[in-house]
Amino acid sequence: MLKDDVIAGLSLPQKALPPKYFYDAVGSRLFERICRLPEYYLTRAELALTRRHIGSIARFAGKGSELIEYGSGESLKTRLLIRALRPSAYLPVDISAAALRAATQRLAREFPRLRIVPVHADFSRPLELPASKGRRIVYFPGSTIGNLLPEEAHAFLSMTRGQATRMLVGVDLKKDANVLHAAYNDSRRVTAAFNLNLLARINRELGADFDPRRFAHYAFYNAALGRVEMHLVSLARQSVRIARHRFSFDAGESIHTENSYKYSVEDFRDLAAAAGFAGKKVWMDRKGLFALHGLINSGSGS
Ligand code: AVI
Fold first, then answer.
1. 301, CA 20 to 30 Å: which among 17, 50, 185, 221?
2. How many angstroms does the Cα of residue 260 sit away from the middle of ligand 1?
3. Which of 15, 13, 1, 14 is nearest to 210 (CA)?
4. 35-86 confidence digits (pLDDT tens)
5. Interior CA angle at 255 toward 251 and 260, to 5°?
6. Alpha helices in 126-264 (DSSP H)
């Protein structure tokens, strides 16, 4: 729950907030704008590689399988995949009921014969899916796996092993730190607005009194840990009230709001192998910015 997570996160020595709370209605709109920014190459690179390799991606996934997507699947690449795969059912899993509803309605209009089974769930926790009627493939695009700590990514991959024999995972690749810096510090400051909206959301939903003008967006590539970190830095010594709690900030103290891990092909294959998946295929865009991994459950015999 938002309130418990906020109180717990702001009580840590390094204050932190879970990135899943970025995506209220305002945050989801800001994220859509991020995906269209010239500096934010991830979305375009993943779409380009999906277009370029759609035939072999669909063959790997197995035409006619049930397609489970983590995320609400409104994107162009999901529609490409559905068109090529002709899944017997499509199960989008999302934490946002509104996003799930919007995506389901839109896909139902576009694919009137497709059986759509929306699953409203938080995938950072173990979850049960409706019983399967056939072979299943899990699709986890967008490098959302990069927003999990490696141990959380391991837990997520281990959970999906029980759900499908194959998996397609979109993963952002390690690259020049300047390219990463620009992607998370765009010139239009949309990423800054996305980060700061977290404080506005806490004000809206918990009646807190954050003054977002007294915090600054800060994102940098932490090369030692292979991740872009986003923080909100307090511009002054101040205190903030949330329900019956009060939190003090020194000038320069930060709230850590997101990690975005970048994995080389080998790094990601090692992570997948530790969770019981063998890396069978990898597809990339022409510029080598982004990878889509085709994984097979090592215990499935397929
Ligand atoms: C959703 N996720 C993969 C995005 C990322 O790049 O880590 C979220 C994001 N944060 C800042 N810009 C975009």
1. 50
2. 7
3. 15
4. 999 999 999 999 999 999 999 999 999 999 999 999 877 778 999 999 999 9
5. 135
6. 150-161, 177-184, 190-206
